[in-house]
Amino acid sequence: MLSIIIRTKAMWCVVRSDASHQALQRGLDYACGNGADCAPIQSTGLCYLPNTIQNHAAYAYNSYYQRNNMAPGSCHFSGTATFAKTDPRDKGLPDYSELYSGFRRRGCSGGWNSCLNMLS
């Protein structure tokens, strides 16, 4: 079977809603230990709240994916991640809109929008 991967500029790495907390923690640890910018999701970071494994993994996964130039294989995390062609900042993505709109703290008052822009 031949697989073709088409990458575009508009691609995000997002957490799967069915991923277990333990698997997300392993993925988060991997991403943060291998190049993702995880400072914003530390307790003093601008994107720390809400303090959930889903939100922190979402940030770290996408940071890792973007820092690896959206390379094939950089958004897998043992099956706990998937690609989104629709910007997670858009309210029209029902599985993720609530998750990503939850990022709020100090200078990150724009929620996920502000935190995602920090990755650029």
From TrEMBL:
Localisation per UniProt entry: Cell membrane
User: What Pfam family is a match, any one?
Assistant: X8
State any GO CC term.
plasma membrane
Report membrane topology.
Lipid-anchor; GPI-anchor
Q: What is its main location?
A: membrane
Which domain of life, per UniProt?
Eukaryota
UniProt keyword list: Cell membrane, Disulfide bond, Glycoprotein, GPI-anchor, Lipoprotein, Membrane, Signal
UniProt KW Cytoplasm keyword:
no
Residue ranges constituting the X8 domain according to the UniProt record:
11-117
Supply the PANTHER family for this chain.
BETA-1,3 GLUCANASE, CARBOHYDRATE-BINDING X8 DOMAIN SUPERFAMILY PROTEIN
- Listed name of the protein: X8 domain-containing protein
List the source organism: Capsicum baccatum
